[in-house]
Write a structure and sequence with these properties.
Residues 26-230 form the Nudix hydrolase domain. With 270 residues, the protein is α+β, with helices and mostly antiparallel strands. The protein has a single domain, classed as Alpha-Beta Complex (Nucleoside Triphosphate Pyrophosphohydrolase), CATH 3.90.79. 33% of the residues lie in helices and 24% in strands. Strands 2, 3, 4, 5, 9, 10, 11 and 12 form an eight-stranded mixed β-sheet that branches. The protein has a three-stranded antiparallel β-sheet with strand order 1-14-13, covered by helices on one side. Strands 6-8-7 form a three-stranded mixed β-sheet, with no helix packed on it.
Length: 270
């Protein structure tokens, strides 16, 4: 149990938490999506590097995702695939929270990549989202002047929850002052669509084989947070995208914790 050494500020907060001098910040529900595509040497994943100015995970390579918008949980949308109740059973969440998680997964993916897991009907998917009108809607979703349900309804689109595969559940450690209760999904890049470097919270994007991303992290060339590192390790075991999407996963919450090892505070996941 070696874990990751904590910087001085987080180590001090960990000791304050253990001593009861401070209370942990509540974790906000969030969703993230591992977008996959077939590559010549196996599956590739889409990663964004968060800007160095971001308050959370600055400079880290991450998957698209973000917090649940309260409107994601309480506005009905046209829906194809597993129901919110089905997703709730998988992620051990109430139906309303599960609805919000799936909507956030699809919405945030569109906001951060231009990829939209929705279509005109339950068996179709939007072919292209690169026009000016799509861009206007994407920006309106980002600034929250447009609700996701209204966006889908206005365009006559059905959310395709069947294009999502549940993958993992990570909760930000209590030592952090920005915390997220994040469900991880996997999805294949829809045929005809393409990711776009749309800026915003990211300053660089890349398609990478999971094993390559891990090797770059080992060399210190990129920074990965523990959930991204762990999921890339899991994904590197699969030979093709179909195998990833067919995987049976038992979703168990994982929350790294701070422990003192030989006088040094470290973050461990066991």
């Amino acid at each position: 149990m070696t874990g990751f050494p904590l910087p001085a500020e987080l180590a001090a907060r960990a000791r304050d938490l253990q001593a009861g001098r401070v209370e942990p910040v509540p974790a906000r529900d969030a969703a993230t999506v591992v977008i996959l595509r077939p590559g010549a040497l196996g599956p590739e994943v889409y990663l964004l590097r968060r800007k160095a100015t971001m308050a959370f995970a600055a400079g880290a390579y991450v998957y698209p995702g973000g917090s649940v918008d309260p409107r994601d949980t309480d506005q009905a949308v046209a829906w194809a695939g597993p129901s919110p109740a089905d997703w709730g059973a998988v992620f051990h969440a109430g139906e309303q929270v599960a609805r919000g998680l799936v909507c956030a997964a699809v919405r945030e993916t569109f906001e951060e990549t231009g990829v939209l897991l929705a279509g005109p009907g339950p068996g179709s998917v939007v072919a292209d989202t690169t026009g000016d009108d799509w861009e206007a809607d994407r920006l309106a979703l980002i600034d929250r002047s447009l609700a996701f349900a209204d966006f889908l309804a206005r365009r006559g689109l059905v959310l395709r929850s069947d294009l999502l595969t549940p993958w993992a559940h990570w909760i930000t450690p209590e030592i952090e002052q920005r915390r997220f209760d994040t469900r991880f999904f996997a999805a294949v890049l829809p045929e005809g669509q393409r990711t776009r470097d749309v800026g915003g919270e990211a300053d660089q994007v890349v398609w990478q084989r999971p094993a390559e991303a891990l090797e770059l992290a080992h060399k210190g060339e990129i920074f990965l947070m523990p959930p991204t590192y762990a999921t890339l390790g899991e994904l590197s075991a699969y030979a093709d995208v179909a195998d990833v999407l067919a995987a049976t996963r038992e979703i168990v919450p994982i929350m790294p914790r701070a422990v003192e090892i030989e006088g040094e505070m470290r973050l461990v996941t066991t």
